[in-house]
Protein backbone atom coordinates (compact mmCIF):
# COMPACT_ATOMS: atom_id res chain seq x y z
CA UNK A 1 0.00 0.00 0.00
CA UNK A 2 1.23 3.47 -0.90
CA UNK A 3 2.75 5.31 2.04
CA UNK A 4 2.86 2.23 4.25
CA UNK A 5 6.31 1.69 5.67
CA UNK A 6 7.47 -1.93 5.75
CA UNK A 7 9.35 -2.76 9.00
CA UNK A 8 12.90 -4.01 8.66
CA UNK A 9 13.87 -7.28 10.39
CA UNK A 10 17.15 -7.38 12.30
CA UNK A 11 19.18 -10.14 13.94
CA UNK A 12 22.29 -10.74 15.99
CA UNK A 13 24.38 -13.93 16.12
CA UNK A 14 27.28 -14.38 18.53
CA UNK A 15 29.49 -17.49 18.30
CA UNK A 16 31.74 -18.26 21.26
CA UNK A 17 31.59 -14.61 22.27
CA UNK A 18 32.29 -13.21 18.79
CA UNK A 19 29.57 -11.19 17.06
CA UNK A 20 29.41 -12.47 13.46
CA UNK A 21 26.19 -10.68 12.45
CA UNK A 22 27.80 -8.33 9.95
CA UNK A 23 29.92 -11.13 8.48
CA UNK A 24 26.93 -13.33 7.62
CA UNK A 25 24.37 -10.63 6.81
CA UNK A 26 24.82 -10.97 3.03
CA UNK A 27 25.16 -14.76 3.24
CA UNK A 28 22.03 -15.51 5.22
CA UNK A 29 19.60 -17.86 3.49
CA UNK A 30 17.55 -18.60 6.59
CA UNK A 31 17.71 -18.38 10.35
CA UNK A 32 15.10 -20.39 12.25
CA UNK A 33 14.57 -20.57 16.00
CA UNK A 34 12.04 -23.13 17.24
CA UNK A 35 10.73 -22.59 20.76
CA UNK A 36 9.44 -25.89 22.13
CA UNK A 37 7.42 -26.66 25.24
CA UNK A 38 8.41 -28.65 28.29
CA UNK A 39 11.77 -30.39 28.24
CA UNK A 40 12.02 -30.61 24.47
CA UNK A 41 15.13 -28.59 23.63
CA UNK A 42 14.73 -25.41 21.60
CA UNK A 43 16.35 -25.60 18.16
CA UNK A 44 18.42 -23.30 15.98
CA UNK A 45 18.85 -23.84 12.22
CA UNK A 46 21.18 -21.46 10.39
CA UNK A 47 21.73 -21.74 6.63
CA UNK A 48 24.45 -19.61 5.00
CA UNK A 49 25.56 -19.18 1.39
CA UNK A 50 29.18 -20.21 0.80
CA UNK A 51 29.48 -19.41 -2.91
CA UNK A 52 33.11 -18.30 -2.56
CA UNK A 53 34.13 -21.07 -0.18
CA UNK A 54 35.40 -18.63 2.42
CA UNK A 55 33.16 -19.68 5.31
CA UNK A 56 34.93 -21.51 8.13
CA UNK A 57 33.16 -24.46 9.72
CA UNK A 58 32.34 -23.75 13.36
CA UNK A 59 33.46 -26.35 15.89
CA UNK A 60 30.95 -28.78 17.31
CA UNK A 61 29.72 -27.70 20.75
CA UNK A 62 30.31 -24.04 19.86
CA UNK A 63 27.98 -21.75 21.81
CA UNK A 64 25.70 -19.60 19.66
CA UNK A 65 23.61 -16.75 21.10
CA UNK A 66 20.77 -15.46 18.92
CA UNK A 67 18.56 -12.37 18.93
CA UNK A 68 15.71 -11.62 16.52
CA UNK A 69 13.50 -8.59 16.09
CA UNK A 70 12.45 -5.52 14.16
CA UNK A 71 14.36 -2.30 13.73
CA UNK A 72 11.46 -0.32 15.20
CA UNK A 73 11.01 -2.40 18.34
CA UNK A 74 14.49 -3.85 18.94
CA UNK A 75 15.92 -7.33 19.44
CA UNK A 76 14.45 -10.20 21.45
CA UNK A 77 16.85 -12.63 23.13
CA UNK A 78 16.05 -16.09 21.74
CA UNK A 79 18.54 -17.96 23.86
CA UNK A 80 21.89 -19.72 23.85
CA UNK A 81 22.45 -22.82 21.73
CA UNK A 82 25.15 -25.47 21.42
CA UNK A 83 26.13 -26.65 17.92
CA UNK A 84 25.44 -30.37 17.51
CA UNK A 85 25.37 -30.75 13.72
CA UNK A 86 27.22 -29.15 10.79
CA UNK A 87 26.53 -29.81 7.13
CA UNK A 88 28.24 -28.41 4.02
CA UNK A 89 26.47 -29.07 0.72
CA UNK A 90 26.50 -27.91 -2.87
CA UNK A 91 26.27 -26.82 -5.53
CA UNK A 92 25.51 -24.04 -4.87
CA UNK A 93 27.62 -24.33 -1.74
CA UNK A 94 25.94 -23.64 1.55
CA UNK A 95 26.65 -24.23 5.22
CA UNK A 96 23.92 -25.51 7.55
CA UNK A 97 24.41 -25.24 11.30
CA UNK A 98 22.02 -26.93 13.73
CA UNK A 99 22.12 -26.37 17.45
CA UNK A 100 20.09 -27.19 20.56
CA UNK A 101 19.28 -25.14 23.61
CA UNK A 102 22.34 -24.83 25.84
CA UNK A 103 20.17 -25.21 28.94
CA UNK A 104 19.87 -28.92 28.23
CA UNK A 105 23.61 -29.42 28.63
CA UNK A 106 22.81 -29.39 32.34
CA UNK A 107 22.25 -32.44 34.51
CA UNK A 108 18.51 -32.69 33.90
CA UNK A 109 18.91 -35.89 31.92
CA UNK A 110 20.94 -37.65 34.61
CA UNK A 111 19.08 -40.50 36.31
CA UNK A 112 18.71 -40.20 40.07
CA UNK A 113 17.20 -42.15 42.93
CA UNK A 114 15.74 -40.17 45.81
CA UNK A 115 12.52 -39.40 47.66
CA UNK A 116 10.75 -36.25 48.81
CA UNK A 117 8.49 -36.34 51.86
CA UNK A 118 6.38 -33.45 53.10
CA UNK A 119 8.06 -31.00 50.73
CA UNK A 120 6.46 -28.13 48.84
CA UNK A 121 6.59 -27.87 45.06
CA UNK A 122 8.91 -24.88 45.44
CA UNK A 123 11.33 -26.89 47.61
CA UNK A 124 11.38 -29.82 45.19
CA UNK A 125 11.95 -27.62 42.15
CA UNK A 126 14.68 -25.71 43.99
CA UNK A 127 16.47 -28.98 44.80
CA UNK A 128 16.38 -30.11 41.17
CA UNK A 129 17.39 -26.66 39.90
CA UNK A 130 20.40 -26.49 42.21
CA UNK A 131 21.74 -29.83 40.98
CA UNK A 132 21.34 -28.66 37.37
CA UNK A 133 22.89 -25.24 38.12
CA UNK A 134 19.68 -23.45 37.18
CA UNK A 135 17.62 -20.76 38.92
CA UNK A 136 14.17 -21.97 40.06
CA UNK A 137 11.07 -19.99 39.06
CA UNK A 138 7.82 -21.46 40.44
CA UNK A 139 4.37 -19.98 39.97
CA UNK A 140 2.99 -18.59 43.27
CA UNK A 141 -0.17 -20.65 42.64
CA UNK A 142 1.86 -23.86 42.93
CA UNK A 143 4.85 -22.94 45.10
CA UNK A 144 3.17 -23.73 48.43
CA UNK A 145 1.52 -26.99 47.39
CA UNK A 146 2.74 -29.76 49.70
CA UNK A 147 3.66 -33.19 48.32
CA UNK A 148 3.09 -35.81 51.01
CA UNK A 149 5.48 -38.27 49.34
CA UNK A 150 6.98 -38.84 45.91
CA UNK A 151 9.79 -41.13 44.75
CA UNK A 152 12.29 -40.62 41.97
CA UNK A 153 13.59 -44.09 41.13
CA UNK A 154 16.18 -44.44 38.37
CA UNK A 155 14.51 -41.51 36.63
CA UNK A 156 15.95 -38.36 35.09
CA UNK A 157 15.12 -35.01 36.65
CA UNK A 158 13.38 -34.01 33.41
CA UNK A 159 11.03 -37.02 33.55
CA UNK A 160 10.51 -36.61 37.26
CA UNK A 161 9.49 -32.96 36.98
CA UNK A 162 7.26 -33.71 34.00
CA UNK A 163 5.48 -36.36 36.08
CA UNK A 164 5.15 -33.96 39.01
CA UNK A 165 3.79 -31.26 36.71
CA UNK A 166 1.03 -33.57 35.43
CA UNK A 167 -0.36 -33.78 38.96
CA UNK A 168 -1.11 -30.06 38.83
CA UNK A 169 -1.98 -29.70 35.13
CA UNK A 170 1.25 -27.74 34.96
CA UNK A 171 4.39 -27.62 32.85
CA UNK A 172 8.08 -27.72 33.74
CA UNK A 173 10.61 -26.28 31.33
CA UNK A 174 13.96 -24.53 31.07
CA UNK A 175 14.36 -21.06 29.58
CA UNK A 176 17.32 -18.69 29.80
CA UNK A 177 19.00 -20.56 32.63
CA UNK A 178 15.85 -20.83 34.74
CA UNK A 179 13.84 -23.90 35.67
CA UNK A 180 10.20 -22.87 35.31
CA UNK A 181 7.25 -24.65 36.92
CA UNK A 182 3.81 -23.17 36.25
CA UNK A 183 0.20 -24.06 35.41
CA UNK A 184 -0.45 -24.85 31.76
CA UNK A 185 -1.09 -21.61 29.93
CA UNK A 186 0.01 -19.43 32.83
CA UNK A 187 2.45 -17.56 30.58
CA UNK A 188 5.56 -17.22 32.71
CA UNK A 189 8.54 -15.24 31.46
CA UNK A 190 12.05 -16.55 32.01
CA UNK A 191 12.19 -14.43 35.16
CA UNK A 192 9.00 -16.03 36.49
CA UNK A 193 6.68 -13.09 35.84
CA UNK A 194 3.08 -13.73 34.76
CA UNK A 195 2.02 -12.44 31.35
CA UNK A 196 -1.48 -11.74 30.07
CA UNK A 197 -2.96 -13.69 27.16
CA UNK A 198 -2.02 -12.50 23.68
CA UNK A 199 -4.54 -11.78 20.94
CA UNK A 200 -3.98 -13.30 17.49
CA UNK A 201 -6.21 -11.94 14.73
CA UNK A 202 -6.83 -13.59 11.39
CA UNK A 203 -5.68 -10.50 9.52
CA UNK A 204 -2.23 -10.99 11.09
CA UNK A 205 -1.71 -14.35 9.35
CA UNK A 206 -1.44 -15.60 5.81
CA UNK A 207 -2.38 -19.23 6.54
CA UNK A 208 -4.07 -21.20 9.30
CA UNK A 209 -5.43 -24.65 10.12
CA UNK A 210 -7.81 -26.09 12.71
CA UNK A 211 -8.40 -29.78 13.42
CA UNK A 212 -10.10 -31.91 16.02
CA UNK A 213 -10.11 -35.70 16.18
CA UNK A 214 -11.34 -38.50 18.38
CA UNK A 215 -8.26 -39.92 20.07
CA UNK A 216 -9.59 -43.46 19.51
CA UNK A 217 -9.35 -43.05 15.73
CA UNK A 218 -5.58 -43.53 15.65
CA UNK A 219 -3.19 -46.04 17.17
CA UNK A 220 -0.01 -44.18 16.24
CA UNK A 221 1.63 -41.42 14.20
CA UNK A 222 3.94 -41.76 11.19
CA UNK A 223 6.45 -39.07 10.15
CA UNK A 224 8.75 -39.04 7.12
CA UNK A 225 12.25 -37.58 6.87
CA UNK A 226 14.68 -37.06 4.02
CA UNK A 227 17.36 -39.74 4.20
CA UNK A 228 20.18 -38.04 2.30
CA UNK A 229 22.53 -41.03 2.59
CA UNK A 230 20.11 -43.40 0.87
CA UNK A 231 18.62 -40.76 -1.41
CA UNK A 232 15.06 -41.57 -0.38
CA UNK A 233 12.56 -40.90 2.37
CA UNK A 234 12.74 -42.71 5.68
CA UNK A 235 9.99 -43.01 8.26
CA UNK A 236 9.51 -43.25 12.01
CA UNK A 237 6.43 -44.34 13.95
CA UNK A 238 5.26 -43.41 17.44
CA UNK A 239 2.66 -45.79 18.87
CA UNK A 240 1.27 -48.81 17.02
CA UNK A 241 0.99 -49.29 13.23
CA UNK A 242 -2.61 -50.56 13.13
CA UNK A 243 -4.18 -47.20 12.20
CA UNK A 244 -1.59 -44.49 11.63
CA UNK A 245 -1.97 -40.75 11.31
CA UNK A 246 0.63 -39.55 8.76
CA UNK A 247 2.10 -36.09 9.19
CA UNK A 248 2.14 -34.09 5.97
CA UNK A 249 5.52 -32.43 6.51
CA UNK A 250 8.71 -34.22 5.41
CA UNK A 251 11.35 -33.51 8.06
CA UNK A 252 14.99 -32.74 7.44
CA UNK A 253 16.39 -35.33 9.85
CA UNK A 254 15.36 -38.56 11.53
CA UNK A 255 15.67 -36.87 14.91
CA UNK A 256 13.25 -34.08 14.01
CA UNK A 257 10.80 -36.61 12.54
CA UNK A 258 10.93 -38.64 15.74
CA UNK A 259 10.23 -35.53 17.83
CA UNK A 260 7.28 -34.55 15.64
CA UNK A 261 5.75 -38.05 15.64
CA UNK A 262 6.11 -38.42 19.40
CA UNK A 263 4.66 -34.96 20.04
CA UNK A 264 1.68 -35.57 17.75
CA UNK A 265 1.03 -38.99 19.32
CA UNK A 266 1.12 -37.47 22.81
CA UNK A 267 -1.46 -34.88 21.74
CA UNK A 268 -3.74 -37.56 20.28
CA UNK A 269 -3.50 -39.60 23.46
CA UNK A 270 -4.48 -36.57 25.52
CA UNK A 271 -7.36 -35.84 23.17
CA UNK A 272 -6.91 -32.28 21.99
CA UNK A 273 -7.97 -29.91 19.28
CA UNK A 274 -5.17 -28.21 17.36
CA UNK A 275 -4.89 -24.79 15.77
CA UNK A 276 -1.99 -23.29 13.88
CA UNK A 277 -1.29 -20.03 12.12
CA UNK A 278 1.64 -18.47 10.29
CA UNK A 279 1.94 -14.78 11.06
CA UNK A 280 2.86 -12.69 8.03
CA UNK A 281 4.81 -10.34 10.32
CA UNK A 282 6.89 -12.18 12.91
CA UNK A 283 6.33 -11.78 16.62
CA UNK A 284 9.59 -13.12 18.11
CA UNK A 285 8.43 -12.29 21.63
CA UNK A 286 5.89 -15.16 21.56
CA UNK A 287 6.81 -18.48 23.17
CA UNK A 288 5.22 -21.79 24.30
CA UNK A 289 2.81 -21.98 27.25
CA UNK A 290 1.69 -18.41 26.62
CA UNK A 291 -2.13 -18.25 26.75
CA UNK A 292 -3.79 -16.85 23.63
CA UNK A 293 -7.15 -15.89 22.22
CA UNK A 294 -7.84 -15.74 18.50
CA UNK A 295 -10.29 -13.66 16.48
CA UNK A 296 -11.72 -13.82 12.97
CA UNK A 297 -12.07 -17.59 12.53
CA UNK A 298 -14.91 -20.06 13.12
CA UNK A 299 -16.97 -19.60 16.28
CA UNK A 300 -15.56 -22.81 17.77
CA UNK A 301 -12.04 -21.45 17.30
CA UNK A 302 -12.65 -17.89 18.49
CA UNK A 303 -14.51 -18.97 21.63
CA UNK A 304 -11.74 -21.27 22.86
CA UNK A 305 -8.91 -20.52 25.25
CA UNK A 306 -5.71 -21.63 23.52
CA UNK A 307 -2.16 -22.34 24.69
CA UNK A 308 0.86 -21.81 22.44
CA UNK A 309 2.70 -25.13 22.23
CA UNK A 310 5.37 -24.23 19.67
CA UNK A 311 6.66 -21.02 18.12
CA UNK A 312 8.90 -21.17 15.05
CA UNK A 313 10.51 -17.87 14.08
CA UNK A 314 12.05 -17.84 10.59
CA UNK A 315 14.07 -15.06 8.99
CA UNK A 316 14.59 -15.76 5.28
CA UNK A 317 13.12 -13.92 2.30
CA UNK A 318 10.67 -12.65 4.90
CA UNK A 319 10.42 -12.69 8.68
CA UNK A 320 7.51 -14.81 9.94
CA UNK A 321 6.33 -16.71 12.99
CA UNK A 322 4.51 -20.06 12.81
CA UNK A 323 2.47 -20.81 15.93
CA UNK A 324 0.90 -24.05 17.11
CA UNK A 325 -1.83 -24.13 19.77
CA UNK A 326 -3.81 -26.74 21.63
CA UNK A 327 -6.49 -27.17 24.27
CA UNK A 328 -8.14 -30.20 25.84
CA UNK A 329 -11.30 -31.56 24.27
CA UNK A 330 -12.82 -31.80 27.74
CA UNK A 331 -12.71 -28.00 27.86
CA UNK A 332 -14.80 -27.56 24.70
From TrEMBL:
Record Pfam families: Phage_GPD
Name assigned to this protein: Phage protein D
Amino acid sequence: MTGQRIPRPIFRVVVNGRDISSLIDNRLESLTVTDNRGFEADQLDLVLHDHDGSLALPPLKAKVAVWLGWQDSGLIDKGLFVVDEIEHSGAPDKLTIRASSADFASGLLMQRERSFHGKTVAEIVATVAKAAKLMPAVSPALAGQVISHIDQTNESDANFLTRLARQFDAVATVKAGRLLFAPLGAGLTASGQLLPAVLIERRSGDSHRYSVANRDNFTGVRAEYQNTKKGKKGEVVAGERDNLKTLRHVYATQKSAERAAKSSWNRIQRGVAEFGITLAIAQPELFPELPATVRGFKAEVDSSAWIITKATHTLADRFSTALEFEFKLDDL
